[in-house]
Predict the structure.
Amino acid sequence: MHQSVEIAGRDGQFGGYLALPKSGRGPGIVVLQEIFGVNHVMRQTCDWLAEEGFCALCPDLFWRIEPGIDITDQTPEEIEQAFSLFGAFNVDTGIIDAQATLAFLQSHAACTGKVGTIGYCLGGKLAYLSATRTKTDASVGYYGVAIDEALDEASKIVRPLLLHIAQKDEFVPPQAVAAMHAALDPNPLVTLYDYAGQSHAFARPGGAHYNASAAALANSRSLEFLKNNLG
């Protein structure tokens, strides 16, 4: 079952896509979007997580710029629009909206009270920041961009965090990956998985760099992690 919801944020209301498990109850997961908005891929992700027993909610994090963005990575025009939105996006207010979404989900009748985050690309960085700035119970990030610019917050991580890293990510250079490992590997709450030969968005179905086997491995690791930490 899925539905559109309205989330009361600090600075106004914004929409979201909520998918609920067949059982009617489960842990909550906030799905943090890529730069294409709450699109088909993000809705599919929520539906997948709901099938696995979670209450999955993807908030419209671009609402401050333009509400209702729902585009793909399939045309040059859409990609140009996505990068324009990315450039205009404020990470700090984005994480405030993520916090409001976590609170909304935690108080939802279908949620057990345990809440986590899972994010992709831009959302991958937000998943990392949710681990440093919010009270999420567990966080998962896929090929998060510019996490290395926020490693001064690494000491604030007190709940489990899992990051999937594409070793050939065109947006995350090798020195950034090395910095992430140096700062995060010593923390026993943090797990970093490197995917050799994989490019950015290797887990995005239909994307130019989609790799079914790498995506399946990452997704299985994510599910095990989330079920262990939110169950």
The beta strands are 2-8, 13-19, 26-32, 55-59, 111-120, 138-142, 161-166, 190-195. The chain has a mean pLDDT of 96. The domain at 2-230 is CATH 3.40.50.1820 (Rossmann fold).
